[in-house]
Amino acid sequence: MAHRSDPTIDLEDIEAIGADDGNEARVRAGFWRKLAGVAARVPFAEDAAAAYYCALDSRTPVRVRALLFGALAYFLLPTDAVPDVFLGLGFTDDAAVLATALNLLASHIAPTHRAAARTALDRLRANRPAAGSR
């Protein structure tokens, strides 16, 4: 299945959110560690993982990949608009940024990306120690 670039997204949009090679490196280095630590607390864990797999997919258009890496890099920042340490509120800004990116780019996230996300999250959850068993 061929992917198409979203005609509503232009290069200025990508540059405005700071999409660069650093975002990809940051996401590759820290995504799973962060998601493993918060997967039980954030309702958008599966969407974040699907976005990750879509961003890594070489068939995904470059502009889409850049936007996804930018949104995922924002998720990794510990101190952003609402720092993640604030229980209940800390991930609301992360969810909003990711939801906006996913809403704009939903046609690029394939069923294979979602399936890979579910499998990876199932593995993460299976390897987490039960609460109170430390």
TrEMBL record:
Keywords: Membrane, Transmembrane, Transmembrane helix. It holds the Pfam family DUF1232. It comes from Starkeya nomas. The keyword DNA repair does not apply. Residues 65-99 form the DUF1232 domain. InterPro entries: DUF1232. This is DUF1232 domain-containing protein. Its main location: membrane. It is a multi-pass membrane protein. It is found in: Endomembrane system.
